[in-house]
Amino acid sequence: MATLTGLEPRLYHVRSTLLVVLALYVSYRISQWIYKAYRVRTRFHDIPSLPRHLIWGNLINAGERLKPSLKRHPDYGFEEIWRELGEPGCFLVDLAPIEDRGFLIIAEPQYVEALVNSTEEFKYSIPKSNNYHALKPVLGAESIITKEGAAWREMRKRFNPSFQPRYIHSLTGSIVSRVEIFVERLQSLAKSGITFKMANYAQDLTTDIITQLTIAQDFHAQSTPEGHGEKSPTGLLTASRRLSDMVYDVGQGVGFHMIDPIRPLKSLFYESIIDHKLTAIVRARISSADTTSESKSIMQLAVSGLSPNKALIRSCVDQVKSFLFAGQDTTATLIQWICYEMSKASHSPHHATILSRLRQEHDAVFGPHPFSAPQILSSPATAESESILTFKLPYTTAFIKETLRLHPPAATVRAVPWEATSLSLPLPSQSVSIAGLQIYPSLHLIQRNPNIWGPDAHLFNPGRWLDDSYLAGLPVGAYRPFERGPRNCIGQELAMLEGMVVLVSVARGFVFEKIGLTGREVVDGGEKEREVWSEHAVTSVPVDGMVMRVSMGEKANFRP
Description:
CATH 1.10.630.10; 11 strands; alpha+beta; four-stranded mixed beta sheet; 560 residues; single chain; three-stranded antiparallel beta sheet
């Protein structure tokens, strides 16, 4: 009893100490929030913005347009704010203290050009935002996407030769062979008449392509049933996709997801699966004795001549994760929107004319058979596949560029250091320092801005890319789906090539039908059906996974 009595004062002191420590921590956090809010709230008053509350900034008036319950990409909310402010070239969204910094949303290219290119103070462009830290489980700590400074430059120099147009086009045959499987899967879907999500099929295709090209490994994503092989619960493809789904989305709001104790454990589990399997593959590939240029993957070419030590293998694994992420998400999204724009030909005379012109170009280049393009592009007798894809399909290229203009799958967010001295915003009235701001070039606003692209900015019109006088009137940097400057997308040539091969392979043999969210005009006075929109899922993706049906085209039974 005496022992228990003696413990009571000690327990009291322990509890008191813990309460004091907790109170100090809470006070510290609150003071940090107050300081962050004050630092943003007292600056940047010369930049257009919605009225900023002394305490809440734009958390309420902008938050109503950006809240997750709307299930749409934040760009749509930014567009509403932009219009309310009179369509300025840029504007401020102050979300402090939820966000450490204010957001500078850019709607005109001249402001972006002044910020993303090299300067004396920022040799390799403004650093990426801290928001990219949430992608670390998906991309890895050594990813070329998140690295900064000289370390990024060295990595970029190492991989640049692997993504040069000539080398990428040398891989056309490998791309075509995977697209042929994609075509066969669409033919099966056409026979069955079932409804499907194009996102799943496009993602399987781009996964097969990117893994084969980067590490010479075929995971057979297109031919493996769900729940089997690398699509099993502990398979690499399952782990990669679930890890992407678990990334915290900016704009998701404050909620349980921020403190969910299970989320990081799941993330660690899937990350360990990916790292373990990729490490074994990468180690084998870069140690391979086969050094002929024809057999080299992008990874092998990038590390040629380097000693395969532990650090190099770790770095290579992170690059493969980065390329796999980009291939699964951004290029797959491009393919979905390509099919969507073709599907509108069934109810839009404007799109019907576009599709007819596209098919005529394919007939002229590949002959009348609707599925002849893959065979011609991959035939050993056709050494000029690069010439065909680069110079002989101008309208096809225009179709893809217009798709990327209206539906850019990704964008960049940069963070200007508070101590920056050389960066200012050249507003019409005066130049304003932007030190401390996050910079978000909204491609949705820039590439649909009628002040830049004209009154038909929201219209899908591939013909604009063939009008030299129209293009000459566009400001520098108006088109930037792969961003510009030193840190532009290293894989843009590959993405364009994949899009081209897919489009010439499916445009004549299939008729795509969007199911729901078609944008179709309803007859007899009914309301127009809402068009499919994008939501934010790390990148910008169609909200419904692009639900479609496909049928065989009129020429599908062509006999020469």
